[in-house]
Write a structure and sequence with these properties.
alpha+beta, 2 domains, seven-stranded mixed beta sheet
Length: about 300
């Protein structure tokens, strides 16, 4: 791959052998959004046709499904360089647009507006929470969560949490299928995709640095959460699934995950709502510390 010439046709799938190279960039240029996490790139990228390449010492990811380029990872391009990169993408018959552009980049590069229209990407902004707040659940806003947790403790004790191990993979995947099914025993296409992504992630947990916490009630797996380090002070919560038959299981796995991570990470990134009202309502109900805004750059 010629690192000074952009050739999207030579971009590569994200495979296990590429993880060290990608991690090197992610560690050098740490972003707070979940798009720049090796677990998400490796697992979601496989199913969304995301491929990677290096251009002028920047790490690039191109989504051949949505035809967007992820904001380049590395020392920031100038607005002129972003236009030049967009031109090269357009030369290969793609729109030349970018996604996951930080708000700070737009503030520092107002000339970007000469060639792009910045569009706030509401559904792809990340929810950031103080770990301590989710571990303590203080205040009136979170009282409903505490009530559901109390119900779980009354109805399903004794319960315990354990750290994820290789031996837990199959039971987690089985619970995921149960979580996926609706009342008619049908799993919709979006949830099927997430199950495939989850399986790819957990089966490669060692090379990805994926960790997890499992909640058992009377020896029955009630819920689990998987996470990884995003930055030194931020954990990324990738997957959180629970047994829908056990009321309060979703709330207590959220609590136990925060308790588990409270001594390691100041913040938890619980990722995006993808523009879904139900998911947005659920994430807002936990009173996030902030939302990390991102933008799309649409070429004029």
């Amino acid at each position: 791959m010629n690192i000074n010439k952009l050739e999207l046709s030579k971009f590569k799938n994200i495979e296990a052998r590429d993880i060290d190279t990608i991690k090197n960039y992610l560690n050098r240029f740490q972003y707070e959004t979940c798009d720049y996490n090796i677990v998400n790139l490796f697992s979601w990228g496989h199913f969304l046709n995301v491929k990677w390449g290096i251009y002028k010492d920047r790490l690039l990811f191109f989504n051949f499904t949505s035809e967007f380029m992820l904001y380049p990872l590395g020392y920031p391009f100038t607005s002129t360089e972003m236009k030049e990169l967009s031109d090269l993408i357009r030369n290969e018959d793609f729109p030349g647009n970018f996604v996951s552009v930080p708000e700070g980049y737009l503030a520092l590069n107002p000339a970007i507006n000469h060639n792009f229209t910045p569009v706030y990407d509401d559904g792809n902004s990340d929810y950031l929470y103080k770990t301590e707040n989710l571990a303590l659940l203080g205040g009136k806003k979170l009282q409903k969560k505490k009530n559901l947790i109390s119900q779980f403790k009354r109805n399903y004790s004794p319960y315990k949490t354990v750290q994820f191990k290789e031996e837990h993979i199959e039971m987690c995947l089985d619970l995921s299928v149960k979580w996926c099914m609706d009342q008619n025993g049908i799993c919709d296409e979006e949830k099927k995709l997430e199950l495939n992504v989850l399986e790819r992630a957990v089966r490669n947990h060692n090379i990805l640095g994926l960790e997890g916490v499992l909640l058992f009630s009377n020896h029955r797996l009630a819920a689990f959460a998987f996470y990884s380090e995003l930055k030194h002070d931020i954990a990324d919560i990738h997957f959180e699934k629970y047994d829908p038959e056990l009321k309060g299981a979703g709330q207590i796995i959220n609590l136990e995950t925060a308790i588990c991570l409270n001594d390691r990470f100041t913040f938890l990134n619980r990722e995006q709502d993808m523009g879904k009202d139900g998911l947005r309502k659920a994430k807002l109900s936990y009173a996030p510390e902030s939302l990390i805004p991102t933008y799309r750059l649409i070429r004029l």
